[in-house]
Design goal:
The structure is a homodimer. By secondary structure, chain A is mainly alpha-helical. Chain A contains 9 helices and no strands. Chain A has 2 domains: 53 residues, Orthogonal Bundle (Arc Repressor Mutant, subunit A), CATH 1.10.10.60; 118 residues, Tetracycline Repressor, domain 2. In chain A, helix 1 crosses helix 2. The N and C termini of chain A lie far apart (57 Å). The model of chain A has no long low-confidence stretch (mean pLDDT 92). The interface between A and B is large, with 54 and 55 residues. The first copy, chain A, binds a DNA duplex through helix 3.
Chain lengths: 194, 194
DNA sequence: GTCTATAATACGATAGAC
DNA sequence: GTCTATCGTATTATAGAC
């Protein structure tokens, strides 16, 4: 059985997925969690603190996506592992939708709130580094700077596509296909225009 | 001489660039535009209407970036033109910063407000189509679907990089370098990992 | 068309009972 | 720990003078 505090954090994640970080109202969260607003202020100092803890909660959950994998031991080899890791952000399950939405919100909010930037940079760096590592294993002949640049491009692409998906301008299947094409292209495969 | 209405729209663009769509307060806009809040409600029905018109205003201005160019008559050929058009979103001038910030906000807001999605899809489609056309001119040997996919990847990449730039996680020069690398890679040049 | 003044309400946050 | 009730303020929106 989960404690109330965790229930509130999960409810906050759902509300953020529905209304955005900046659209979260403490009153609406109370309704979603089926508690009073006073209880929220009992468990969290204020709205800002609640938001901080919720974003940490979401990050942890996202970390677990990847942390639970067994790195390097992927059956399909590094190429398949690379594709799988990049596709983690592009799946239509409640969990991933919630996480991707919150993540996009975090990025969008950081444009106007410098206080969020540090957390953001840290998590982004971890992700980029992981992708660069997989690229290095998929193409051991490439240079480290080339792998780093390709990893930055692939992750930024996934973020861009994720926003388009969530904002309804791009079907999920199409977004996934574009990522596959980008992997092909970056690995020097047959994906390029010519 | 501009009329008050247009002055308010320009002021709204500045406020959105500073605070975000959801951070825009009618009172702050009034101060920025040096008018009363009542005047804003005289010229626009309500906050939502003001926002709609401001976002249309921003879209029009962004269209003009590219519409005013002389398509096909670029001195450096289609490859240079392609690079230039993609780089339009990644420049540290007040205008571009305002537009890119507002554009990112429009996308981020559309995730939670379906009413904005139609406008968004239209402008995105125009942009993607323009890039696909330039790719076709740069590589006439490629197929139309390949050009379309590459255009979607390049524009989504620019959006992702733009958000990273504006949220302070990526220096502008680096973002621009990554776009150049992506163009090389998509055109089958020497940019790939291997 | 533009202002000052103010109504109406939404929202974050707290007091105090249980 | 959890609730009901409420306060204070920020914000949207309007009334009415000029």
């Amino acid at each position: 059985m989960l404690d109330r505090r965790t229930e509130i954090l999960m409810a906050a994640t759902r509300v953020i997925a529905r209304r955005g970080v900046r659209g979260l109202r403490v009153g609406e969260l109370a309704t979603e969690a089926a508690v009073s607003t006073a209880l929220i202020y009992y468990h969290f100092t204020d709205r800002a603190g609640l938001l901080r803890e919720t974003l940490a909660f979401i990050s942890d959950r996202a970390d677990r996506y990847t942390a639970e994998r067994d790195p390097g031991a992927h059956p399909g080899g590094p190429r398949a592992e690379l594709e799988q890791v990049l596709m983690l952000e592009l799946q239509d399950t409640a969990d991933v939708r919630e996480n991707s939405t919150a993540w996009g919100e975090l990025r969008a909010t950081a444009v106007f709130e410098p206080g969020l930037r540090e957390d953001l940079a840290k998590v982004t760096h971890t992700w980029v580094y992981e992708i660069a590592d997989l690229l290095a294993r998929a193409r051991p002949d490439g240079t480290a700077p080339a792998h780093a640049a390709a990893a930055e491009r692939l992750t930024a692409l996934v973020e861009g596509l994720s926003t388009r998906w969530l904002s309804g301008s791009l079907p999920l299947d199409h977004a996934r296909q574009l990522v596959r094409g980008a992997i092909d292209t970056e690995l020097g495969g047959s994906g390029a225009v010519g």
